[in-house]
Amino acid sequence: MASNSFTLASKVKLPSGHLMPQMQLGLYMMSGREVLSAVPWALAAGYRGFDSAQMYHNEAEAGKAIRTFLESSNNPGLKREDLFYTSKLASNGTSYSSVHRSIKQSVEACGLGYIDLFLLHSPYGGPEARLTSWKAVEDAIEEGEIKSGGVSNYGVRHIEELMASGPRIKPSVNQIEVHPFNTQIEIREACAKHGIVVEAYAPLARAERMRDPTILALAKQYACTPAQLMVRWSLQHGLVPLPKSSRKERVIDNVKVDKFEISQDDMAKLDDLDEDLVTDWDPTDAP
C-alpha cells in the first residue's frame, strides 16, 4: 500500500456496483446554517461525499448547498453524478407505505433528484419493522429514487437476520461507530463475510480521546494531527470514515492523510486502545 494511496478522490466499489468516496463529510449535529457553510468549504477542498439523515434535520440545507455549488462559478466542472449524497430513515416502520413515503420525502427534501445511499438508521422496531423497512428501500432502488441501500447501527444478529431473509437487494453498507477506542471487530467481520462495506461514523471518537498518550505519541511520530492519525487508521482498515467538523480549517485538515502510512506494528498499537467506547448511542444490541 503506497503511503499516498488515500485522497479525497479515492473511491470504494459497493455491492450495488456504484462507486462511493472513501472519505466523506459527516453532517451529524450540524445546524442548517452550519451545513450551508461547511458543504461548500468541503466541496472546494475536494470532498465528494456528504452524510445526512432525517434525524439531523438538515437534509434540505445539505441539498441546497450542493445544488448552489454546482450552479456557482466556483464549480470546477462537477455534475450531480460526481457527488455522493447519503440520508437515513429516522425510524423503521411496520407500515410499508409509511417507510416508502418517508424515503420519497427525503428525496424531495434534498432536491438532488435522487439519493446515492439510503440507510435504515437503526435496528430499532423489531424484526418485522426491519424487514418491512428494507423492502421499501429495495423498491425505492428499483424505482430509481435511491441508487444503493444499506443499514446503520446494525449488530451481527441484525445483519444475519436481514441476509437470512433472502433480500432481493443486499445491503451495500453498514454505518457504525468505529475508531481505535471502539474497533467493532465482530460486526466488521460479519459485514466482510457478506461483502458489506463498513462506514465509520465518529472516526475521531468525537474528540474524546485526542489527548490519549498513544494517539499523541504516534501523531508526533508521523508528523500528523491526532485526527489525521485516526482517519488514516480507518482507511488502512478498509473503512469509509465520516469525519465531521463545522470549522473550515478542520474540514480541510482532517483528510490530509496521503503523506504517511501507519506501520503494521503501530496499527496494532492503535487496535489495542479498544475499550468499547460509545460516544453517542449504541443500538447494535437492539431486540
Beta-strand content estimate: 5-15%
Spell out the helices and strands N to C.
Answer: EEEHEHEHEHEHEHEHHEHH
What is the tally of helical segments? 10
Relevant CATH superfamily: NADP-dependent oxidoreductase domain
The CATH architecture name reads Alpha-Beta Barrel
Which strand order does the major sheet show? 3-4-5-6-7-8-9-10
Tell me the name of the CATH class: Alpha Beta
Q: Got a strand count?
A: 10
Note poorly predicted spans: none
The CATH topology is what? TIM Barrel
List the defining traits of the structure above:
globular; alpha/beta; 10 helices; TIM Barrel; eight-stranded parallel sheet; two-stranded antiparallel ribbon; 287 residues
Blueprint (SSEs and pairs):
Blueprint (H helix, E strand, L loop, with lengths): L10 E3 L5 E3 L3 E2 L5 H14 L3 E3 L7 H13 L12 E6 L6 H15 L4 E6 L6 H16 L3 E7 L3 H9 L8 E5 L7 H9 L3 E5 L11 H9 L4 H11 L3 E2 L6 H6 L10 H8 L16
Parallel strand pairs: 3-4, 4-5, 5-6, 6-7, 7-8, 8-9, 9-10
Antiparallel strand pairs: 1-2
Helix pairs in contact: 1-2, 2-3, 3-4, 7-8
Description:
Helix content is 38%, strand content 15%. It is of the alpha/beta class. It has ten helices and ten strands. It has helices at 32-45, 59-71, 96-110, 127-142, 156-164, 185-193, 213-221, 226-236, 248-253, 264-271, and strands spanning 11-13, 19-21, 25-26, 49-51, 84-89, 115-120, 146-152, 173-177, 197-201, 240-241. The chain is globular, with a radius of gyration of 18 Å. It has a single domain (11-271), classed as TIM Barrel (Alpha-Beta Barrel).
